[in-house]
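Issue 218. Parser rejects a valid record. Input:
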Amino acid sequence: MVPFFVLVGAFVLCRILGWAGVGFFAAWQHCLRVAVAAMFLLTASAHWGKRRADLIRMVPPAFKRPDLLVTLTGIAELAGAVGILWTLTAKAASVGLAILLVAMFPANVYAARRQLTIDGRKVPGLVVRTALQIVFLFAVILAGWGCALCLVSFS
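Output the parser choked on:
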């Protein structure tokens, strides 16, 4: 749940800055890019810190070298967080992060079904984790590609 709160909190903070006159944050998409980057920087940090062992336990047994997978997904999260901030790479980073979220979903399912913990806290159940993944997917897609089909303007 912490990544969700970081995503929402960073977005709201950036929007407030935009309304206060900080030009860059006047655009909702810029705010969402910063929020997505903040969320992925947070989640990437767990790949090397004290939560690393918890993440390794989340990898389903069918996948070999869970330690390597955790390292690679952490690197991908860092690259995506940086890439989503730069206009020239935002679309590619958005696609990459969306693919990464889908690829990591089996670990979330495994963790929820096994009622694993991260940093001593029980992971959310499968319904909540699925809903969060959907929110994160929409966020990364909107951050990179905008809202061309939206009926409501967020500006």
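Fixed in the parser; the record now loads. Residues 2-145 form one domain.
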